[in-house]
Amino acid sequence: MIEIERKFLVKNDSFKKAASTENRITQGYLSSVAERTVRVRIKGNKGFLTIKGASNESGLSRFEWEKEIPIEEAKKLILLSEAGVIDKTRFEIKMGNHTFEVDEFYGDNSGLIIAEIELSSETETFLKPDWLGDEVTNDIRYYNAYLSTKPYNKW
Amino acid sequence: MIEIERKFLVKNDSFKKAASTENRITQGYLSSVAERTVRVRIKGNKGFLTIKGASNESGLSRFEWEKEIPIEEAKKLILLSEAGVIDKTRFEIKMGNHTFEVDEFYGDNSGLIIAEIELSSETETFLKPDWLGDEVTNDIRYYNAYLSTKPYNKW
C-alpha cells in the first residue's frame, strides 16, 4: 500500500494526558537507506517486519509493506540489524477522525518527540492540537532509519 | 534456524536428466551485505522473503529466516530492490538421503552453474555425483547477493 503521512515536532508533553494507548517500541534496521528501508520492530508483545520504499516527490507518500511476525523471530532478527537500535514510547491520541502517533525517544535520541498523522489523501485537512509544533515531513533527519545512524544527540 | 550448506561448481549439464523438479527463479535484494541479506524471491507462482545473517567461522552455517508471501506482494517488493536482479532455473536432484539444488544462471551470470546441498551437521557425509565439480562454499563471490552486484560475466 501507499502510506500518506505528515510529521511534526511536539512543543511539550501535554499530549500525554490525552493518550489512549502507550507502548514501548524497540526497532532495528536491516537496511536503513531511504530507497529500501527494512525494519524489525518489537511493540509490546508483538513483532513486525516492515519494508518501505522511497518517498514520492511531495515527500508525503511512501510505499509500505508490513507483516506481523512472532516476537521470538523479531528478537532474533533485531540481533542482525545495523548499529543504532531505536528505543521509544509511542502514545496514541485520537483527535476528530484522526489519530496522532506521538513518539518520545530515549537513549541517543532522548529529547526528541515527534508526532505523525496518517491521511487518506495529500490534501486532507485535520485538527491541530496546541502541543503540535513545526512540520518536518520533508526533513529526512527525522526518519527513524536516519535517527538510528545519526541520533539526535549528535546533531 | 541455522542453515548448513555446501556449495560446488558443476562440470556439465548431465544433472538435468536426473532432475525431479525444475523452477524458474527471479530474485532481488533489499540488502546484499553478507551480515544482513534481505532477499525477495519469486519461484514459479510463489513469493518468498528471506533474511540471512553472517556465516560462522567455518563458512558452513548461517542464520536463515524465511516466510512465504503472496506473489503480488513479492512483485511489488522486487521493484524496490537494488540493481542486479538474479534470473535462474533451479533443478532438484535427489541423491541418497539428500537433495542437490542446482542453479543454472541467465543474463549477466550466464555460464555459471552452482550445486548446493543442505546438511544436518558440518561433518555429515553425502554421495558425490560425477557432474559435481570443485567446492566453493567459502568463496563469497558465489553468494547470490554478491552475484547480483558483481555478476559472473564481469569477473
From TrEMBL, chains A, B:
Matching InterPro entries: CYTH-like_dom_sf, CYTH_domain, NeuTTM/CthTTM-like
Top-level taxon of the source organism: Bacteria
SMART domains: CYTH
Gene3D superfamilies: Hypothetical Protein Pfu-838710-001
Active-site residues, record numbering mapped to chain: 29 (proton acceptor)
SUPFAM superfamilies (alphabetical): CYTH-like phosphatases
Domain called CYTH: residue spans: 1-149
The protein's name: Adenylate cyclase
Origin species: Flavobacterium micromati
